[in-house]
Specification:
A hairpin with a 6-residue loop joins strand 4 and strand 5. It is built from 15 helices and 10 strands. Helix 1 packs antiparallel against helix 4. It has a 10-stranded mixed β-sheet, with helices on both faces. It is globular. It folds into 3 domains: 80 residues; 83 residues, no CATH class; 243 residues, no CATH class. It is α/β, with parallel strands linked by helices and 453 residues long. Helices cover 49% and strands 16% of the residues.
Length: 453
């Protein structure tokens, strides 16, 4: 979906000022106009009975001129060119047209998205067919194309300059895999492919230990919260839950850092070189696959268990970077779909996370911070979508490396500060819902450490 705006070095897509929100407003306005039209029509219909009212008809011989004038005026008011009946029809027609137009726009947009998905799927199948039928020419053509584009001179820098290429490859990969698994229906998309890969890894949670510290500094802004999120990344296999305020007005913020190990799926202690064996950490590559694929994993399980320790009905904000952002979206999804959730997850903030494929209910407001030169948010193969409850803030910060472009301290914390300082209405709408979370002063923080069985 389109419907974006730029201001102060960033672009805001979706949210309260996005196209989907505008279409929702158009549909709601059309519904109100249509309903009012029916009400006006009912009033006009009921008023027609005065034309044949018995008392009025009996008085006609006594004042025929007045009677005729009254009847004429009432008929004109009810059925004339500007009468109630005509206006009722106009209102019903206008409301119906507005609702139809909003639905047509939305249907067109969804059709374009599906057409693009089909294109990418067929593109992947054609490439897979080339590998199957003529592998050497296909690989040689690919090599020459990459060499001509300059991708082989410095691949790491080149991919940060062309992250859309990575997104296209990921989106098309399901088509290539589907070619080699005909009729299986699996994997049929990025989620299914990630879910399949996650099965190679241990996804069980072992011990979850915690330590609570009082008197820690509470954030006063989203920027401050981003700084705390970067601090949380300094621990291994850990996350933190912060309580701001006390009593029924307390707010809880969960800080979820990203991946600690880009490991392989094989048992440790074997003949394989380092990097191909599982690290034994929860915040591992396997958790990335599981979170993207929507598969149960130890990180999501640990966070849900920690939320179970909070007072019932607590107001929770989830804040995650990279893998932590995907986990935040999946935790919010699990809470939203639970029959009797112990807490209320009202807000999710992600930084550098591939979460465009996760659709959360309208009750959850999502804010995603994305650097266009950060390749990690591209790994779900999904383009940024315009949703009324999901605001994406895009910036372009090229720091020269995959790691730096993905950094909280160098990219996403400064972006949060720019967002909060902006007077652009889109930017303000993006952070308005978060202002009630922060409050400064002191807070109580519980540090959680996860382990494998």
């Amino acid at each position: 979906m389109s419907g974006s705006d730029s201001s102060g070095g960033f672009e805001v897509v979706g949210g309260a000022h996005g196209l989907e929100a505008d279409l929702d407003d158009m549909d709601a306005t059309g519904s109100r106009i249509r309903a009012t039209g029916w009400d006006v029509g009912d009033t006009a219909l009921d008023t027609h009975r005065f034309l044949v009212d018995g008392n009025l008809l009996r008085s006609a011989p006594l004042a025929p001129t007045t009677f005729a004038r009254f009847e004429g005026s009432l008929v004109a008011a009810l059925d004339g060119p500007e009468g109630l009946s005509v206006n009722a029809v106009r209102m019903v027609a206008t409301g119906t047209f507005m609702q139809g137009k909003s639905k047509a726009y939305l249907a067109t947009d969804r059709a374009l998205e599906q057409a693009d998905d089909l294109r990418q799927h067929l593109q992947g199948q054609l490439y897979g067919l080339g590998l199957a039928v003529a592998p050497v020419p296909t690989l040689l053509t690919t090599y020459l194309a990459l060499e001509d584009a300059g991708a082989l001179d410095d691949p790491a820098t080149w991919i940060t300059e062309h992250p859309d290429v990575l997104e296209e490859v990921v989106a098309s990969s399901s088509g290539a895999l589907d070619l080699f698994l005909p009729g299986s229906g699996f994997p049929s998309g990025t989620e299914d492919g990630a879910a399949l890969l996650s099965l190679l890894y241990d996804q069980e949670l072992g011990e979850l230990t915690s330590e609570t510290v009082d008197g820690t500094a509470a954030p006063q802004s989203l920027h401050d919260a981003m700084v705390l999120l970067e601090e949380a990344a300094g621990t291994t296999d850990g996350f933190r839950v912060e309580r701001i305020g006390t009593g029924p007005d307390a707010r809880y913020v969960v800080y979820l850092p990203g991946t600690k190990a880009f490991d392989g799926p094989f048992e440790p202690g074997g003949p394989l070189p380092d990097g191909l064996e599982e690290s034994g950490l929860v915040q591992s590559l396997g958790t990335n696959f599981a979170a993207v694929g929507g598969v149960d994993n130890a990180y999501v399980t640990a966070v849900l268990r920690a939320l179970g320790d909070l007072p019932e009905g607590s107001d929770v904000t989830l804040l995650g970077h990279s893998q932590g952002g995907i986990v935040a979206a999946r935790v919010a999804e699990a809470v939203a779909t639970a029959e009797d959730p112990p807490v209320r997850v009202r807000r999710v903030v992600t930084a550098g996370s591939p979460v465009d494929h996760v659709e959360l209910p309208e009750s959850v407001q999502v804010l995603s911070l994305v650097n266009e030169h950060d390749i990690v948010p591209r790994l779900d193969g999904e383009a940024v979508d315009d949703r009324s409850n999901h605001t994406t803030v895009l910036t372009r910060r090229q720091l020269g490396s995959v790691t730096d472009n993905h950094s909280v301290g160098r990219v996403y914390a400064p972006l949060a500060a720019d967002l909060e300082a902006s007077d652009d209405p889109r930017a303000q709408a993006a952070v308005d819902g978060l202002r009630e979370v922060w409050g400064g002063g002191t807070s109580t923080t519980t540090f959680y450490e996860m382990g494998r069985p």
